[in-house]
Protein: LppC family lipoprotein
Amino acid sequence: MCAPIEPNTSVAPVPPRAPEIIAPVIPEAEVETMPVDAPPGASVPSGNPRAADLAVDSKPATRIGLLLPTRSDALGPPAGALRAGFMAAYERDRTGFEVKLIETGDSPQDVLAAYATALTENDIVVGPLARSAVSAIAGAGVAVSKPTIALNHPEGRGTGGALPHNLLVMGLSIEDEARQVAQWAASEHPGARALVVSGANAWQRRIANAFAAQWKQLGNESQTVELAASNGYLSESGISQLRNRVDAEQPTLLFTALDADQLRQVRASLGTSVPAYGTSSVNPGTEPGKALAELDGVRLLDLPWEVQPDHPAVMVYPRWNASRRTLDLDRLYALGIDAFRVAREITLHPGAPFTMDGVTGRLSVSFGDGPARFERVQPTAVYQGGSFKPSGGGQ
Structure:
């Protein structure tokens, strides 16, 4: 989420998933600006009753510049997924708007040049996508002179100064998920002792730390155990030691900073008696015929797009049918949908705070009157029998 983005799939072994995008610097590419049509994989229903009933406004269309690293080898697939979602939402509510794609590589210098061009040719800019590129715009002294919606978080988030007022950050964040899971678990188990079970990857340590810090802030105690892994699989000796520790300490609950296959290993050894919580990283997906009994009862948090197919906002947009679809790319498709919806709302009601039932969560936005503020609350769910059921509590 949000996404360094490492794929989170249900195929064993699962490559570790990380919440931000880190990409190598490649030679700079020329900036290209062009009108955008819906790309392959983002088929939209023919006709839009809502748009068709609206009279064509006499004022010029609002120009949205979609700034994405489509020329990057590393970031091309994530950019393509996000673009597809953005255009699916645009096709549904396009009246009064036009979208232009500004293509870049993934070097910060390339993105800064592209961003400067986008500001001159558009009324609002959506992008960039790479964390390093967002940092470049936020901290390089660039004049953020028009509304800009960043699709990732700047590096060193929470450690630096204030962001430009015209910059709204709405990237997906797995650390935010971990903090929300801590609040949810605390509401279900007041005063509980938690055992945080983490893998050794950087993203796993980050979400383990985020959960533990929030858990402590809520007045609760936790301990952390880190398990070594090889080729995505946890070591048997580490799992055995974990089982002995759980038997001895009897924690109230587990927070699992793992991927879905690793959690399956843990649950196969420990059983299901101790409640297990996790972020979207433990979501195994819901492919037909692939119910995973070891994960039954796992409590997790993810986007409505992934765990609430009957959510009203989710149902009105087409599913992404790309051949190389993964859960992480699917989440970026969903982010693209909400990015257009937020850009549209900011344009139609400048300066007015608003909330929105998005496909990435319940969104609260304040923009245009002082520092920009964005909050996303994601739904909680329980994995059971190969699908997700409402948790009955939490967010």
DSSP finds eleven helices and 18 strands in the chain. The two ends are 19 Å apart (CA to CA). The longest helix spans residues 327-348.
